[in-house]
Amino acid sequence: MGHVPNLTPADAAAAVRNPLAFIAARWTPDPRTVQRAALAALVMSVVIVVTGGAVRLTGSGLGCPTWPKCTDDSLTTTSAMGVHGVIEFGNRMLTYVLCAAVGWAIIAARSEKPYRRGLTRLGWAQFWVVMGNAILGGIVVLVGLNPYTVAAHFLLSTALIAVATVMWQRTREGDGPARPLVGTSVRQLVWFLVAASVLLIAVGTVVTGSGPHAGDSSEVERMPLDWETVSKLHAVLAWIVVTLTFALWFVLKAVDAPKGPLHRTRDLFLVLLAQGVIGYVQYFTDLPEILVGLHMFGSCLVWIAVLRVLLALRERPGPDTEVPLPAQTTSSLSAGI
Predict the structure, then answer these.
(1) How far is Cα 212 from Cα 218, in angstroms, rounded to an integer?
(2) Under DSSP, is residue 58 helix (H, G, I), strand (E, B) or coil?
(3) Please, are residues 69 and 75 in contact by the beta-carbon 8 Å criterion?
(4) How many CB atoms within 10 Å of residue 45?
């Protein structure tokens, strides 16, 4: 065993005042450790969405009818509440696992040498989004699964996935100035793709809010919209995202773009195809719960894939790294393509 240093009263006081700085002064994680910590936070941000969907699809949304306690008299679920209480309370407990994953990411980023302020801020951004969404989740229960609050709860989870994806990408990059790998027109096309994807996800929450899966066996308020019409609008937006993705792949091939953006666009296209198949099958089979759950999981993967395409359009080498752009990319940039 290695030597374990004695902690002095001054050390203990320093740990209380600033525990992150105390840990950072005594631990330098390997870069792969930081990457894994960021990936763990991203994975848990997806898991919490999927398990939250399971709560709704099993009719367990009010399994714990109050918040922050499970019942007025009990902090945890009771046997009288049955399986619905177990499912709802279990999802609440997973929030602590998510917090632990985000906390590990923050500690790892804060302890990395040299210190990367931007990376640490991304970790803290995740923490505050988690806290905000936990409070919003409590409000969802207190207002009896109001569909507008449920939609906001999902959209805030989508924002968490976005921040976690960016942090995971940044752990594999340096802190040098971002260098574009494609021209302005290509970047604008990708931003149109991102905007269409955000609109697709937002309309997806309206489909859920007006659809039959209210999240509880009792009478729950639904959005006063025609579910069939909203579903068709959602499908149209999905086709727009697919078309933009295919157009992007074609343009990237035409300008001989680097492999990174091409591979990320290919990945997005494959995820979209799988998500589309699930979407149409669930529509024509009266929304079986298992397919709806898979569709929610697919929504997370689509969003991550879209963000990876956006982040692949530039590189951020370390401050001492010289990475010249390929000749084809340089000529494309000069042409404004």
Answers:
(1) 12
(2) coil
(3) yes
(4) 27
